Amino acid sequence: MSDAEQTRQNILTVAADEIHQHGFKATSLSVILNRCEISKGALYYHFTSKIELGYAVFEEVYTPMFLNVWHTPLTVDDPIEGLCDFLTAMTEEMSCSEVVCGCPLNNLCEEMANVDEGFRLRILCMQEQLNQLIVDALERVSGDLRDNLAFSQVGYFIVATLNGATSLSKSSRNKLLFQQVIAELCLYIRALKK
Amino acid sequence: MSDAEQTRQNILTVAADEIHQHGFKATSLSVILNRCEISKGALYYHFTSKIELGYAVFEEVYTPMFLNVWHTPLTVDDPIEGLCDFLTAMTEEMSCSEVVCGCPLNNLCEEMANVDEGFRLRILCMQEQLNQLIVDALERVSGDLRDNLAFSQVGYFIVATLNGATSLSKSSRNKLLFQQVIAELCLYIRALKK
DNA sequence: ATAATAACCAACCGCTCGGTATGTTGCAAG
DNA sequence: CTTGCAACATACCGAGCGGTTGGTTATTAT
């Protein structure tokens, strides 16, 4: 990787972390510059504006991360158990910072979806991809599932509940409420089976 | 009501609307002053700081509003149906601004819970009160419900899913995803019955 | 009549923000 | 040897922010 590309990647990584911790608007470019030990000129050489940097973080850091994380548990033999194991593992492995900072995608959705169309469309696209992953997995084992299930609806329900659960962990500052909601979610997911 | 109290209430009402629309941090005091047609001195006579104004909005506007809204459907004869009717009516009556702006409590939780302890504790208290309302209602009709239900867990699950659903409506800018998640949530809630 | 207080107003302050304009350096092509 | 561009660095700008300061007015108590 060239020096320039290295610089760019470094900016993206640091910016992704800052946005995750403080949200997009509260993220200060000067903090990113300090952490990267570069000047403002360098940043504006690679990105035309703060919001374009935000878009790049979304597309080049968050999106691949999410698709990768969700792909694994949904492509195992039994995606119902895969999903439950995945969610349960999440409650256990969740770091303190993740309890406090929440999910990057959900955070950006809450903060930016209603003020910036660029973010909104990217978030929507990501949510649809995530939902499609779940729908595909459910359809693959539809023979084992209850009849009359609306797969897309189920998918969005799961994602919505997970987001709501991270929200609860933010205010309680511990995993307990999160774990309870996930436990109930797993009961719901397992009840999808015949 | 005295003139001073009238002024104070006016500030609270306008601030509640601004915070709902733009979040706490992005809410500008000068906008509130313009809308109220008062000076900055007037605002700082009634409130010692921006964050104290935020706390007052939470306690004197959002909290009573929430407790009132949730109390009705949970104290009818059949709280299961009351809840489902309440949620379904919400999807229908939801105004355009509510689709875009989301739930004030959830918004503040996402934005402020991890940066300000004062907000965090107030939000947590509110969520616990909300959960208690649900738990009380479920316990009241526990004879009609499945055995081995963890009422508190169920309560937080419902609240979490509702919050996640409003989040989805923000990015999609329509009610469809919200309605789907609520429909699935009602299926879950009705399945609590024996 | 006067003193005090409640309820405001107008002007200003320091600070941080995103963004820009200009200057510098190293390397590579001709 | 020098020209040119990529890849930065430095210094500065205007705007908006929350908050403070020093009045002003009207009402009330003495």
TrEMBL record, chains A, B:
Domain HTH tetR-type: 5-65
InterPro entries documented for this protein: DNA-bd_HTH_TetR-type_CS (IPR023772), Homeodomain-like_sf (IPR009057), HTH_TetR (IPR001647), Tet_transcr_reg_TetR-rel_C_sf (IPR036271), YxaF_TetR_C (IPR054156)
Superkingdom, taxonomy of origin: Bacteria
GO function term, MF aspect, one: DNA binding
Keyword Ribosomal protein attached: no
Pfam short name (any one): TetR_C_13_2
SUPFAM superfamilies: Homeodomain-like (SSF46689), Tetracyclin repressor-like, C-terminal domain (SSF48498)
Ranges of the DNA-binding region feature: 28-47
Keywords assigned: DNA-binding, Transcription, Transcription regulation
Heme recorded as keyword: no
Protein's name according to its UniProt entry: TetR/AcrR family transcriptional regulator
